[in-house]
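Lab notebook: predicted structure, single chain.

Context: the supervisor wants predicted structures on file for every construct in the current expression panel, including those that have not yet been purified. This is the next one on the list. No modifications to the sequence; it matches the entry in the shared construct table.
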Amino acid sequence: MTTGIACLLMRGGTSKGAYFLADDLPADPAVRDDLLLRVLGSPDPRQIDGIGGAHPLTSKVAVISPSAESDVDVDYLFLQLGVEQATVSDRQNCGNLLAGVGPFAVERGLVAAGAERTTVRIRMVNSKSVAVATFPTPDGAVDYAGDTAICGVPGTAAPVTLDFADTAGSACGALLPTGSRCDVIDGVEVTCVDNGMPVVVAAASELGVTGYETVAELAADAELAERVRSLRLRAGTLMGLGDVETASIPKVTLVAPARSGGTLCTRTFIPVRPHDSIGVLGAISVGTAALLDGTTAHDLARPPGPDRPLRIEHPTGHLDVTVELDHRPVPVVRRSGVLRTARKLFDGLVFPRP
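Prediction complete. Output recorded below exactly as produced.
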């Protein structure tokens, strides 16, 4: 008889994933990954025999444990599972699932809830950087209800404020991993940037599109998909990531002037499948590029007003992020932040495919 595993399914930002305590999973990474593939139902395009949602944004896992670091509350390991492929990658962070880590830590008793609000310091194991999550806990319990709306999610929920430190060079070792603000790959000018997520930023017009296409229009463009694939493969090598054929990073984001009063309009691919929105850390990396003179994003961007966030437009709305840079003598990220929401969907036992 198959044994059930304690699991909390949660929407974090515009993603959905299975959250586990590390102690409830096998310690051996290979055994753990095999188990998680069977839990989510991969490899299968429908993930019909598991709890995955048949899309990269819903084929995600968060593994949480108490932190051994004195100034950190919990450790958060993010795992991206393939849908049609039996792959499990820990090469990137996920800022959306991060929104659910603090509430999960309180739900599982890893962190004591405050009387009104709770702040949880989270070490993102994938990049060894720290995020601080703050969310409402009236009467000492997580409250998921609220009036905060985020694009790409119906309705409203309680706000989760995320502040980041030390995210520059999270996967590549440097904010500008090629050492340049602009490179040419396949005849296309690109900016390779990593402020929490390695991203290859290119003007949409350079690839023969406007940057305002719908997700369906982008998905139907086989030639564009092949050009995106080639860009990310070659950029992966330039960014020090090696062979990224089976990896989900770097992301490719096409940019165009904003259309709805924002800073920049984006179309992102994961890895060649068009994204319905944009990831948290991906948006922060693109926003960082927009602030840096000489990048592919800078001249297309509309600077925000004083004390205003960068509004990154995407196919289903926008995402507001903050990035504070010290531009001299080389760019240094002081801090980054974003407002997200999260909601508990179910809590119980999940039974993996035998």
